[in-house]
Amino acid sequence: MKVASFNQKLQDWITQQWVIFFGTKINANDYKWLLGPFGKINGIGLKFIEQLSENEQLIIDDAQTNKGLLQSINQLELTSIELNKLSKNVIDFYENTSNYNFELKVKWNPIFKIFGVLLKVLFSNRIEQLNIPMKNTIDSKTLKSKIIYLVNEDSNTLKRIIWLRKFKQSGQVVYSGVYETCLIPNGQKCIKAIFPLPNGSATVILTPTVGENGELILNSSGNKIGDSGFYFLLKDARGNLWTKFIRSFKDKLVVSSENGKLKALQTLTMWNLRVLQFSYTIHANN
User: What is the pTM of this model?
Assistant: First the structure.
């Protein structure tokens, strides 16, 4: 029987069963480009970092400075023309992300706001993940950003990069995600953001391009499994792996520098309708 594990909250079981019913069973060896760490049932947030380091026998390196989502921008395998065009400030942000913090503004499409409320009530507050503000913000909210490396103690090799973001005022975790690059089946190098969930993950694969003004554009706009896009992944009660590709859901992030000031605009759409928009002002730590 194809069934999710019963040893968890009912709402988690229902959503996982939905992935099994409408999704695709996959083989780990054929989908290494997609797979990443899964969360456990007893919370994500800060607990996940400790659980992952223990499970993979890694050491937590949480020093505050000079840590990036990318060790080098060359990991994206951009063309020489794109690299020469890409803003040096944007490159520094991705190679030294820990040296920056953010001011966040949120703008919801009222049509989709009820789904955000349900997400927050049923999941986000409990698992400390995807805690998106429900109100449109005129004044920005300050996010405290932290890059955490998980390192092999014997070889001192970097194995995992975790980006933890919290509201500075409340300390509430907004996102806790594992970031890495991957090579999707068509040979395109992408950024993969893995947000652990109970017995699974929400994973976004983003294709990088460089805009005319030197901005980095990350797009999850594919049409099928194997493309960039949004995936749910889970492990069922028997240890089988499943994925559901959400074709209708798109994520576009544009990181740019104007007059030496960094900013980012992230737009989430569903069925070609804007669901939510995040505006980030990015500034170096004092």
Answer: 0.90
